[in-house]
What we know:
By secondary structure, the protein is an all-alpha fold. The protein has seven helices and no strands. The termini are far apart.
Amino acid sequence: MADEQNTPGNGPEDEHQGATTDQGAGTGDEHQGEAGSADEGDRAEDVTTERAAREAAEKRASEAEQEAARLRRSNAAVKGVDLDALRAEVRTEFTEQLVRAELRAAAAGRLRDPADALALLDVASLAGSGGDIDAAAVAAAVDQLVKDKPYLAAETTGSAAWGDVGAGHRESVEPEPATPLDRLRRAFGNS
């Protein structure tokens, strides 16, 4: 079977040739030469036609690719034309950033960790209409958070007590212990 496939006249390119040789085989040797030259002319004509068809197909494919690229650009431009929606989205994001900054500023002295205000309060509800920040609403929200969760409030002791840092003049000066053992006794309260 493999021999049949490899023999001339079995393939599609050889069909035209096989038909010509079958006609020439029955008439004799004088017709074989004429059939061979006619067959070469047909092949040259077929090759020329095939090349022209291929070039036309490649041209159509190139034009189709260019048209598809143009349509993609056109569709992208049409989708991006909704500038109002894009502006509204940017305005909303910017307003939320401003509200978060205002919240941190309002909670800075009132909460131990101002990030708690960002985590526990609804930022979107504190933004005013039109992108304005409602400072009164922000302060009220921080006040309500301190009321609801007093453990988040910052310690307010007036002034921070530093304690004795060991510097400065002292009124009563005790003499230095004579031995290290005396020093330990004084430190632990055993006299």
